[in-house]
Design goal:
Blueprint: H1 10-20, E1 28-30, E2 36-40, E3 43-51, H2 55-70, E4 86-93, E5 96-106, E6 122-127, E7 130-138, H3 143-159, E8 168-173, E9 179-185
Antiparallel strand pairs: 1-2, 2-7, 3-5, 3-6, 4-5, 4-8, 7-9, 8-9
Length: 189
């Protein structure tokens, strides 16, 4: 789950990672030179909303809650298998990253009816198939660097006249070494 790897090309490395591991793979991929267009079919996700002044700590708190659910703190008292990547839906206001996130981890597809959470802040959701503009990265970053990457990616999409949701962005984290993707939902199709 928390595989350690050194990436060469972040976008290709994430796709290669998912070929070797049981993780969320795109159902369609159009690879570009500056960013990719990927379609994901999320199936079921374990999610929780978190907020605070330090994004890394906020997301870590959300992951701990989700891990507790997955490891048996649920109505059935059973393990609910999940798989990478873990992610966070971030919120934007006037182009600025807010300190509010919806943290999520996919549930393996073999689990048809996951048990109800006992923690009222945990939800099981199904998101529809969604197209994203995606840019991959392969090094660890802090809160400020994430904000810079999100802002720069937004500017690049605007410059290319791409139709995207300007109120949220998604981070998908594949490893503790920093292999990640930032995505904006493609709209208008």
């Amino acid at each position: 789950f928390w595989n350690q790897l050194a990436a060469q090309d972040p976008a290709e490395e994430a796709l290669d990672f998912c070929q070797d591991e049981d993780c969320l793979k795109p159902v369609e991929a159009i690879l570009g030179s500056n960013y990719d267009v990927l379609e994901f079919d999320f199936r079921q996700l374990v999610t929780t909303d978190c907020s605070g002044t330090n994004a890394r700590l906020v997301v870590d708190d959300g992951l701990i809650k989700i891990a507790n659910y997955s490891l048996g703190e649920n109505a059935a008292g059973t393990v609910v298998p999940v798989f990478p990547p873990w992610g966070a839906l971030g919120y934007l206001e006037n182009g600025e990253v807010q300190q509010k996130f919806n943290v999520f981890i996919p549930i393996v597809p073999q689990v048809i009816n996951p048990p109800d959470p006992t923690d009222p802040t945990i939800e099981i959701v199904i998101r529809p198939p969604t197209l994203y503009f995606v840019r991959g990265f392969d090094n660890k970053v802090d809160d400020e660097q994430i904000k810079v990457r999100v802002t720069q990616f937004m500017k690049d999409l605007e410059q290319d006249n791409q139709p995207f949701n300007r109120t949220t962005f998604t981070m998908a984290i594949f490893s503790t070494q920093g292999l990640m993707e930032i995505g904006f939902e493609k709209i208008g199709e």
